[in-house]
Design a protein that fits this description.
112 residues, elongated, Arc Repressor Mutant, subunit A, three-stranded antiparallel beta sheet, alpha+beta
Length: 112
């Protein structure tokens, strides 16, 4: 079994949650999301982020608006919809349950 592949799959599993959480703080530009994810050691590329943002938009969880830029073409800024806020709230509960369960399992002492 390949450790790196397992680590990648674990990161992919929480990517959507992390992206929704970033967007929940206010309107955000995609490159700023990439920068925050990368600084948190969640390596993601544009080819992964943009399709995910499109899926979230089609699901009605995020929306965007175009904003003129002084340094180039207009930029798309994303924000959560009401449905996205509700969805994220439910994901937070699931995340907290998973953390609790994982801690119970990983901190249990060996039995003989």
């Amino acid at each position: 079994m390949n450790l790196e592949n397992t680590q990648i799959q674990m990161r992919k599993g929480i990517l959507e949650y992390c992206i929704l959480h970033i967007i929940s703080r206010g309107e955000v530009y995609a490159s700023d999301m990439l920068e925050e994810l990368t600084s948190a050691k969640i390596m993601v590329v544009e080819g992964t982020l943009y399709p995910l943002l499109t899926r979230l938009r089609k699901a009605g969880l995020v929306e965007y608006k175009w904003v003129e830029s002084n340094s180039g073409p207009p930029r798309k800024y994303y924000k959560l919809t009401k449905e996205g806020t509700d969805f994220l709230k439910n994901l937070k509960g699931t995340w907290n349950d998973l953390i609790k369960s994982a801690k119970l399992i990983t901190t249990k002492k060996e039995t003989k």
